[in-house]
Amino acid sequence: MEHGGQARPVRVIALMNQKGGVGKTTTTVNLAAAIAAAGRDTLVIDLAPQAHTTLHLGQTAGPTDDSGTVYDILLDEGVDPAACVRPVDSRLHMMPSETDLAAAETELTGNPTRHGRLAGALHRLGGAHEFVLIDCPPSLGLLTMNALAAADEVLIPMQAHFLALQGVGKLLETVGPGRQELNPHLTVAGVVLCMHDNQVTHAREVVADLEPFFENERGTGRAWSDARVYHPPIRRNIKLAECPSFGQTIMQYAPWAPGASDYQKLAQTVIAEWDLAIGRQPQPAPAAAASAAAAPAPEAPPTATPTVAPSPEPASAPSGTEGDQALPNLPNQSEPGQSEPGRSEHDLSDAEIHVLRGRLPAAPTSPAPADTQGRA
Ligand SMILES: Nc1ncnc2c1ncn2[C@@H]1O[C@H](COP(=O)(O)OP(=O)(O)OP(=O)(O)O)[C@@H](O)[C@H]1O
Ligand SMILES: [Mg+2]
Known about the structure:
Helix content: 25-40%
Order of helices and strands: EHEHHEEHHEHEHEHEHHHHH
Structural class: alpha/beta
Bound molecules: adenosine-5'-triphosphate, magnesium ion
CATH superfamily: P-loop containing nucleotide triphosphate hydrolases
Strand content: 5-15%
Mean pLDDT: 78
Radius of gyration: 20 Å
Number of domains: 1
Distance between the termini: 7 Å
CATH class: Alpha Beta
Shape: globular
Low-confidence stretches: 288-303, 308-376
Largest sheet: 8 strands, mixed
């Protein structure tokens, strides 16, 4: 996508899943930080009224003397979006949220341009940022519709268990009509597996179901016909759950942790496919990012104290499974006995898996018409 008439291509990604607590905010923040650390200008937009992304990035929720919020952008098309962007790091910027955002839906009821407000703001912002990551709330209302209208791609953070996969099926069905009504350019980039535990039998089975599902969709012209399961999965890592309380990304809080390594590798994948798409030669990562990625894993905990009150409970992090679980090709970080290959709370019976498979959208019998329109 080109913005504001400028030639610089911009990759706008909405991180979306109507299921709560699947890792949308964690992935938005840490993937964006890793992309920025790799030397790419990145903007994070917090579209969730809880403002967790804003707090995670160490920012004040709500307007400050220096900046407005995404609420201002949605409510008033005349607001300068640049006045709602805050610097986080040299290459990382963010547009904060506020709790008033929850009222935007009611306040804009019946307004014919209500779904295109964010898209308009990004266009006016121009190509200042090469990557724009939009964190969506766990619902499909006005806020998420603004993200769908503004984005080029949808990235779906999910956990590899039954309810999450059922949610992906519904979500994919939602992106289809969303594309027709709001944004014919929109595609589903794929799925990022969060809080992943490859030693749980059912997690492996869900991955084994997802990959052929997307393969079968190739060439159908559907929004998700080029979607993929992104690698690597993000392992469950307690450091990722701790760092929001310190207002820090995982790269700041524990750059040696498996969570930092996973998001850095995911960022490399996201950057590499983008460079390929726009025909740019692969660029070496800056020395700082490269050395952080290669850093050893000392055991020393950070000395920072929390800057925001920690959430009482991770929304969907089961207790007692917070160790870093092993994946194929990655070092085994798990404690002995932490995750048994047998049935766990995430495991399903064969009958349940059968039901699940039936809930994924069926591959079409005849190809849907391919997009004929793109956005300027
Ligand atoms: N890989 C991980 N390892 C451990 N904890 C994680 C991991 N990813 C996310 N969490 C924790 O799980 C909880 C839910 O994650 P997060 O807030 O990112 O989900 P969400 O999809 O944005 O939720 P919501 O739908 O409420 O906005 C948080 O407490 C977060 O710190
Ligand atoms: Mg969130």
